[in-house]
Amino acid sequence: MPDRSSHRALPAHTHPEDVPVETALAALADPVRLQLVRELAAAADWSHSCGSFQVPVGKAALSHHFTVLRAAGLVEQRDRGPKRLNRLRREEFDTRFPGLLGLVLREEG
Amino acid sequence: MPDRSSHRALPAHTHPEDVPVETALAALADPVRLQLVRELAAAADWSHSCGSFQVPVGKAALSHHFTVLRAAGLVEQRDRGPKRLNRLRREEFDTRFPGLLGLVLREEG
């Protein structure tokens, strides 16, 4: 049976080890992406599909924000049926940039 | 005697306490500003005038970068005669965003 996922091939991921510090900072320097990261941090891994976040942006903008988060090593995605599920790469990101995620998660939105 | 400084009135500064985390991250998410911050971190306070940094940008761009750094609570400026001198607000910024400066200073340029 072909994959009936509504997404095309799962997009490329970048491991935090390969992320320059400027890229990590720029990814987090945006209120929508900070909100996505905070919601992911507050939920269990793989419990959030891309459509389930409380952010005031459309689908195309959301897709762009996830591209930036993947490229910064912040988010891992996996398709399950029609849903694309998300996980914050907290441990790997913390190993690469100690304290950075904690800093933005401590702040209020 | 009037002030013969080549600068106009010293521009406004923002204290790190009043800086949102997005603003701090965006200020540091730029290779030229990171280089300015690294050079300031490596030098004594007030030893660097605005024209003394090793960055490949013109005067107008440099002025913009310093505006961003002041607004993020990263840099304090003071005029001495014709020179505008700079200081990294390391302690105040560290108090507001613990570990963030250390993170970017550890990274290679």
UniProtKB/TrEMBL annotation, chains A, B:
Protein known as: Transcriptional regulator
Gene3D superfamilies noted in UniProt: Winged helix-like DNA-binding domain superfamily/Winged helix DNA-binding domain
Taxonomic path: Bacteria, Bacillati, Actinomycetota, Actinomycetes, Kitasatosporales
Species assigned in the record: Streptomyces angustmyceticus
Keywords assigned by UniProt, alphabetized: DNA-binding, Transcription, Transcription regulation
One example of the protein's molecular function in GO is: DNA binding
Outline the extent of the HTH arsR-type domain: 13-108
Q: Where are the transmembrane segments?
A: none
